[in-house]
C-alpha cells in the first residue's frame, strides 16, 4: 500500500510541477525508455504541452488534465522509483490518519443527504439523484418456485453474482422491498478492503445485501435488516427477524430466522435473536448459544471470514471452508 502511495505522490508532484505549468516543460528532452511511454517517437512532455493547450480551449478540469498527463507520463523508470522512495517520514499511521480524515468528510456529507433519502423512501417519492451512467431499461419477468413473478427493470453493476441470482434473492426479501431495485453501494474491487470504509458506504441504509465470493468460487452472504449505524449505539446484537443468510453457489439455499418456524411461533431464546453484530474489528450475522458459533463473520481487513452452524437462522456453514479467503465482497442497497 505504501509503495502505491509513494508512486501516486510522485506522479502528482510532477503533474503539479509540469502539468499545471506547461511553460516549464523541457523543449528538447532526451527520449528514453519509460514505464508509461506509449510512443517511441514522441516525448510525453511535448505531447502533453500541445494537448494541454487545446484542453485549455475546451475548459477541461484539473482532473482531466491530470489523467491526460499521467497517460503520457514519460519519466524514466529509475528516476520514478528514486523519487518515490526518496520521500521521507511517510509512516503508516499518518497514512491511515489521512484516510480516516477523508472518510469522515465523506461520512459527514452522506449524513446530510441520507435523511432526505429516508424521507423520500417513507413517503414513496423518488429523490432525483444523477446517475453516472444511464443504462437502457430492459423489462424482464423472472419466475421462481414458491414466489411471485419478479420484474427486474434495470441492469446494474455487479461482478459477484448474476442477475439471475439477484432475481432469486428478490424472491426472499420482504415483499414491500420488491418494488425497489438493487444498487451497488460498496465493492471491495472499487472502494478497497477496509471494514470502516464499508460501514461509511452502507451504514445509513435500512436494508442491504452482502454478497461474498471465496477462493473456491462459492458465493454466499446475508440480508441485513437494520442500519449498521446502530453498531455505535447498542454495542450488542441488533437488527430484526427479517434478516437472513443465504448461499448462491454451488447451490441456492436460504436460512431465515427460527422465529418464523411453526415450532417456535416467535417464542425464541435470547441467543436466537442475534441477527447482526458490528464493530470496528468484525461484522457478524447469526449468533448461537455457543458464542463461537457465528453464521457469518467478516474480519476488519475484508480478506478473511468464517462461517459455522448458528442458532439464530438454524443455518449450516455457508461454505465448504470454515475459515475462508474473501476474493470479493459487494454490498447492495435498495433504490427506486
TrEMBL record:
PROSITE patterns given in the database record: TLDC
Record-annotated TLDc domain positions: 159-335
Protein name (record): TLDc domain-containing protein
Lineage of producing organism: Eukaryota, Metazoa, Spiralia, Gnathifera, Rotifera
Amino acid at each position: 500500500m505504501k509503495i502505491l502511495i509513494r508512486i501516486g505522490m510522485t506522479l502528482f508532484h510532477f503533474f503539479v510541477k509540469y502539468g499545471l505549468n506547461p511553460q516549464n516543460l523541457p523543449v528538447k528532452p532526451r527520449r528514453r525508455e519509460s514505464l508509461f511511454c506509449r510512443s517511441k517517437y514522441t516525448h510525453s512532455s511535448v505531447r502533453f504541452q500541445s494537448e494541454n493547450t487545446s484542453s485549455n480551449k475546451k475548459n477541461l478540469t484539473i482532473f482531466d488534465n491530470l489523467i491526460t498527463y499521467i497517460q503520457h507520463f514519460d519519466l524514466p523508470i529509475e528516476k520514478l522509483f528514486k523519487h518515490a522512495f526518496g520521500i521521507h517520514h511517510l509512516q503508516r499511521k499518518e497514512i491511515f490518519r489521512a484516510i480516516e480524515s477523508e472518510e469522515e468528510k465523506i461520512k459527514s456529507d452522506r449524513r446530510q443527504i441520507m435523511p432526505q433519502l429516508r424521507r423520500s423512501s417513507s413517503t414513496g417519492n423518488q429523490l432525483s439523484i444523477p446517475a453516472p451512467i444511464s443504462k437502457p431499461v430492459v423489462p424482464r419477468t423472472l419466475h421462481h418456485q414458491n414466489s411471485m413473478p419478479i420484474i427486474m427493470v434495470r441492469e446494474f453493476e455487479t461482478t459477484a453474482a448474476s442477475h439471475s441470482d439477484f432475481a432469486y434473492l428478490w424472491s426472499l426479501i420482504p415483499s414491500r422491498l420488491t418494488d425497489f431495485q438493487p444498487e451497488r453501494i460498496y465493492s471491495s474491487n472499487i472502494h478497497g478492503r477496509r471494514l470502516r470504509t464499508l460501514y461509511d458506504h452502507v451504514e445509513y441504509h435500512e436494508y442491504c445485501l452482502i454478497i461474498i465470493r471465496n477462493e473456491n468460487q462459492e458465493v454466499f452472504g446475508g440480508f441485513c435488516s437494520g442500519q449498521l449505524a446502530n453498531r455505535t449505539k447498542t454495542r450488542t446484537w441488533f437488527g430484526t427477524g427479517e434478516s437472513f443468510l443465504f448461499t448462491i453457489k454451488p447451490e441456492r439455499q436460504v436460512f431465515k430466522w427460527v422465529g418464523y418456524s411453526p415450532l417456535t411461533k416467535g417464542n425464541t431464546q435470547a441467543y436466537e435473536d442475534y441477527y447482526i453484530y458490528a464493530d470496528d474489528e468484525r461484522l457478524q450475522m447469526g449468533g448461537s448459544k455457543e458464542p463461537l458459533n457465528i453464521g457469518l463473520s467478516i474480519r476488519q481487513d475484508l480478506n478473511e471470514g468464517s462461517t459455522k452452524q448458528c442458532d439464530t437462522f438454524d443455518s449450516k456453514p455457508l461454505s465448504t471452508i470454515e475459515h475462508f479467503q474473501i476474493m470479493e465482497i459487494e454490498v447492495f442497497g435498495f433504490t427506486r
